[in-house]
Amino acid sequence: MENIILRAMRTFDESVCAPEYARNQLAIEIIFPEPPVFINELAVRVYSEDYQLIGADVYSPSSQKTPRKVRFIVLSDTFWDENLYHIFVFQNGLPKWTVSLSPSPSYEVWKKEKLDELESHPDKKFFIERLCPTDWWQNMYSEQFHFPSAEKVIGKLYSYSEAEGVCPHLLVTGNNLMTKAFSCFILAAYLTGNDKSEQAVFSV
Questions:
Q1: What H or E segment, with its residue span, contains residue 182?
Q2: Backbone angles phi, psi at 193, to 5 degrees
Q3: Residue 199: pLDDT over 60
Q4: How many H-runs (helices) and E-runs (strands) does the chain carry?
Q5: Mind giving me the DSSP string for 125-172?
Q6: How far apart are CA 100 and CA 11, in angstroms?
Q7: Distances from the Cα of 198 to the Cαs of 171, 190, 191, in angstroms?
Q8: Is the model's pLDDT at 149 over the cut of 70?
Q9: Which residues of 123-157 are buried (b: 16+ CB within 10 A; e: fewer)?
């Protein structure tokens, strides 16, 4: 099968009817080798380098046939810069593809990459299906905490979830306040399935 291409650029589209922050726009286009079938909805979600949701957009075909090229406009209340962004593409509500890219520093200049099947990135699949829907994940990189890199945390939790038999020990090291915060608010939430009553008696 030929590659599915995703391209993105920073842009100003004054025709977009949206709040004032809409001038912070990222245009995203998905280009299929041939018109896809059985698609009721396509959606994109864009995450920052530390896997915090920046913005999203949804496309619903107006007819039974989806065009080869689908365009999205993702709005943000902060400027899009040249940092790395993680983009997830959903087909009919389910995560299907992913890619990471940095937009061009110039406006109206496309940057393109090949979309990968999500199945070939188990860490990212684990994140989008298991971690990002939780409320505690949004607290991971707030100004209040300074935890390890998101990729490192995702990788460790994924390895833990895949362990067979006796689960491996987890060792949290670092600044005393941060290790306590990470253990109580993040690790305990993950290991108890975010059950508040269980977290209250969870031993770390």
A1: none
A2: 65, 30
A3: no
A4: 5, 9
A5: HHIIIIITTSTGGGGTTSTT--PSPHHHHHHHHHHHHH--SSPPP---
A6: 19
A7: 20, 11, 9
A8: yes
A9: ebbbbbeebbeeeebeebbeeeeebeebeebbeeb
Q: How far apart are CA 88 and CA 72, in angstroms?
A: 13
Identity at 79, one-letter amino acid code: F
Structure tokens at 47: 């995450």
Residue 12 CA to residue 108 CA, distance in Å, equals 8
pLDDT tens digits, one per residue of 89-136? 999 999 999 999 999 999 999 999 999 999 999 999 999 999 998 888
Q: Which residue has tokens 């109206």? A: 108
Q: Which amino acid is present at 166?
A: V
**What φ, ψ does residue 47 adopt, rounded to 5°?**
-115, 150
Single-letter amino acid code for the residue at 143: E
**Total residues found in the chain within this entry:** 204
The CA distance from 188 to 168, in Å, is 15
**Residue 201 pLDDT class (50, 70, 90 cuts):** low
For residue 52, list its beta bridge partners. none
20 secondary structure, DSSP code: G
Distance (Å, rounded) from C-alpha 170 to C-alpha 173? Answer: 10
Q: Could you give the angle at the alpha carbon of 82 between the alpha carbons of 25 and 29, nearest 5°?
A: 45
> Quick check: pTM over 0.85?
yes
